[in-house]
Structures are given as C-alpha cells and as structure tokens.
C-alpha cells in the first residue's frame, strides 16, 4: 500500500532533543510539557519549529513532570507523572496555575494510568497503583468524593495495579493486572459493576473504545486481540500473523484509533500495523519503515498517543525519535524532528538559572553568537547560590562576552 510521507526537521543547528508525552493542539500548534527538561513548549505543526516558553515554577523535579494532558475551554491541563501538581495553562496568556492533589504517598498517586473526561467538565484520574479514583470538577477546580469506588472490588496486593481505563458512553471501563474481571464504573449513578474476563491470565496493556466495542490489546502480541461488543457482550479475537509479530516487536505498548482504523505503533520494532474496526482487516505498513530508514528516522519505543478529530500522534520518551503524525483526511504521515535550537536552549538555561528577561542587553560570546545570530536579553538577577550549575556557566560566559 502507498502512504504519502513528509519529514519536517528543525532549521539551523539543533542543540537538544526534546521528546514529550503530554500535549494538546490549539490553532496549528502542539503545546507540550517536555519529558526531559522542566519546560512548557510548543511545536508549530507547519514549520516544525519548537519554542520554549517557561518553567513550571512550582515543580521541583526537572524531568518526567507530566505524562498526559487534556483541554478544557481555553486551558490545557497537564496531569502529573513525577510532578506534584496539575498544571493548568491559559492558552491565550500562557499563565500557569497549579492545582494540588491529595497526598501522593498516602494514595499512591505515583503515575496516572488514564485521564477521562465526562459531561464536558469532570476529569477522572485513574491511579496506576491502587488508591481512590479522583473526580475533578474543572469548572470549580475542586475534587469531589465519589461513591462505590472500583478499587473496593479488587483484591489488593503489592503487585496489582490498573493497566488502563477508557470512557464508554457514561461509563468508565477499567482493567487490572490481575485479569480476573472487567470493572465498569457508572459515572452518573456512581456505581460499580463487574463482568467476567474469560481469557485466563492474558494480561492486557491497552483498552480502546471504537465501533461500539471495547478492544483489549494484550501485553504480548502472541496472545489475541479481543473485541467485546458493549451491548451484547459478544467477543471476537484477532491474532496477528507471525511475520507481523517479528517486525512489530513482541510487546504491544501503544495503540489508538482514528476514523475506521486502529493503529499500533512499534515498541523497539520496525513496522506499524493497523486494524479496520469493522472488518477486522489487518494491514502491515512496511513502506513507512523503508522510507523512514532512507531519511534517517529509525522507529524506536513509541509509548503513548494523542489524537484530535483530524490527526493521530505517536510519541516517545527516547531522544532522536521523530514524532509520528497521521492525517485522517489526506492519509498522509508526517514525522517531526523534536529538538530545541541553540537560541531556545539558551533561553531554557538562562531561565533555569533564575535569569528572567529584562530590558538590559548582553552580547553573546563568540562561540555562541555564530550559532544564535542575535542578542539575548537577560537581567543580572542571578541566584549566586547555584555556582556550579550549567546556568551559572552560561551566565558567566555571557558576562565575559559583554
């Protein structure tokens, strides 16, 4: 099959790769929280240029702050991974406010398996390890206590956790590592019910709601993909051919659907595979791999997805891995190089060293001036307690070249 493909790279000399998980699209830009540095950034989907705006000031961690993001009105809500807060960014003003969550140690909120929005204003956070599901009113920015929490139905051990959850109309379907039952939480009645899981201890890694059915993707692709009709409970199983398994890699890490297709991205494998949600037809897209190799874009460990009505993105935590973008209407695939230019990277370092922008202009030293080809405006409000930081060294170099 023939799929048109584009590669969009950064212009000029790049300094730092900047992969991300948590992102949201608005007005032709993908706004994101970087996975490897503390920073709120954007990617222009037309030019491919990456811009660094600011730090999430209330967060102490430098890496792995956010793994998910959702949009609400003119806001982007970044859901914490190692971060302590939900960071809420006003898209127009770029102002960031923080919403504190319950004690992470008490509730084991170390990582959020899923974030689900219902009734256009309620955000449900499903914890990785067992704790209480959180229901957040995004209008009032308050946490509501919920009744009949699904965790009460599950045998708790140190080795059990929620692997995924998905919104199905007014319900949330949850799956645990124990693989004994499927837990269905009615968000209107706030009641939990269970239905049996009839596939032994086959572990599931991903749940997708598509075509009036819930699809269960196994951790090991040597097991079957299960499609369960939400009305009748009827199940269909799909097994990937052996040749597909060898090229995709044995492990299914991420899958997502757009239009009539569920796409499966490779995790340290070579090929993408997609499944038609109505016919069950399976297609291996070898052409993407061959073209990507010619353009020096190897496929590596895609781990999460983000989609809009028109685009599907696959994202990685690995430096040097291009972001995958599928355009539903045109059928085109675009790969984006994710990196900061010297100019944007220097902005990050200066802000990290507590050097906010001001009206005072300092010339760049010769070794950076040729790369950035412009002046950098910074102030002298450096925190001198950070003598050994890289930000201090950048600052000292800038002062020496003034």
Summarize the structure in short.
With 402 residues, the protein is mainly β. It has helices at residues 104-107, 242-248, 286-294, 342-352, 366-372, 390-400; strands at 5-8, 14-17, 20-26, 29-34, 40-44, 50-54, 66-72, 75-80, 85-90, 96-100, 112-118, 122-127, 134-137, 142-144, 162-168, 171-176, 181-186, 191-196, 204-210, 213-218, 225-229, 235-238, 254-258, 261-265, 272-276, 282-285, 302-307, 311-316, 323-327, 333-336, 339-341, 361-362, 376-377.
Describe the largest sheet: 5 strands, mixed
User: DSSP strand (E) fraction?
Assistant: 35-45%
Radius of gyration: 23 Å
Number of helices: 6
What coarse outline follows from CA principal-axis ratios?
A: globular
Return the structural class: mainly beta
Mean pLDDT across every amino acid position: 79
Report how far the terminal alpha carbons are from each other.
Answer: 58 Å
Uncertain parts: 355-392, 398-402
Strand order of the largest sheet: 1-30-29-28-27
Helix content: 10-25%
Chain-wise SSE layout:
Elements: E1 5-8, E2 14-17, E3 20-26, E4 29-34, E5 40-44, E6 50-54, E7 66-72, E8 75-80, E9 85-90, E10 96-100, H1 104-107, E11 112-118, E12 122-127, E13 134-137, E14 142-144, E15 162-168, E16 171-176, E17 181-186, E18 191-196, E19 204-210, E20 213-218, E21 225-229, E22 235-238, H2 242-248, E23 254-258, E24 261-265, E25 272-276, E26 282-285, H3 286-294, E27 302-307, E28 311-316, E29 323-327, E30 333-336, E31 339-341, H4 342-352, E32 361-362, H5 366-372, E33 376-377, H6 390-400
Parallel strand pairs: 1-30
Antiparallel strand pairs: 2-31, 3-4, 4-5, 5-6, 7-8, 8-9, 9-10, 11-12, 12-13, 13-14, 15-16, 16-17, 17-18, 19-20, 20-21, 21-22, 23-24, 24-25, 25-26, 27-28, 28-29, 29-30, 32-33
Helix pairs in contact: 4-6
